[in-house]
């Protein structure tokens, strides 16, 4: 594959990643199955947590799985660029760009007037494709914090805050540090981004109005 073709495919895959991210299972399922707009219900966020509150845990789990797969699928597009396989930094950079495009699609979906969710699930999918060991450990941290606090927002912030620490530790132990700068920078950007997207949650936590996680019966029934 020539360099020119690789560049063109890279650009096309950025667009494809954004379009993948723009698919919103929360909005689609709420309208097609329940006849409602999830953006007008509960916390008004078209994400898995709000879907779980409004439509039940099974629908929330389905939405979460699809949103995660969007991030994984976007990052896996890099395997169609064989020239990058022998350049670790460029390979990871391409994954980061595709994953970021998918997250932007989730937050600003083309198909839904650019009004989407916070991108956490799709973000997790991208991270899972880029660095599975660190994400699996972060998942354990998420579950432990959720068990003790019952706040999903606190659990997400705690898990993603640990991500850059884990990335740097695991890379230092297993890989050549000279080949990891792209992911190290990205991991730190992840932590900052999640804090920024959860400012509203932090305000509710401060005022004591943040809703705790519990298995809700669906508010809307089929």
Pick out its properties.
mainly alpha, 222 residues, globular, 70% helix
How would you describe what is shown here?
- With 222 residues, the chain is an all-alpha fold.
- It is 70% helix and 0% strand.
- The protein has helices at 3-22, 25-34, 48-55, 57-76, 88-107, 120-130, 132-149, 152-174, 181-197, 199-207.
- It starts with a helix and ends in a 15-residue tail after the last helix.
- The relative contact order is 0.13.
- The model has no long low-confidence stretch (mean pLDDT 84).
Query: How large a portion of the residues is in β-strands, by DSSP E?
Result: under 5%
Low-confidence stretches: none
Helix content: over 70%
Report the count of strand segments: 0
Q: Which structural class fits the helix and strand makeup?
A: mainly alpha
Q: What integer is the average pLDDT?
A: 84
How big is the Rg? 18 Å
Shape: globular
Concise account of the structure shown:
The protein contains ten helices and no strands. It is mostly helical.
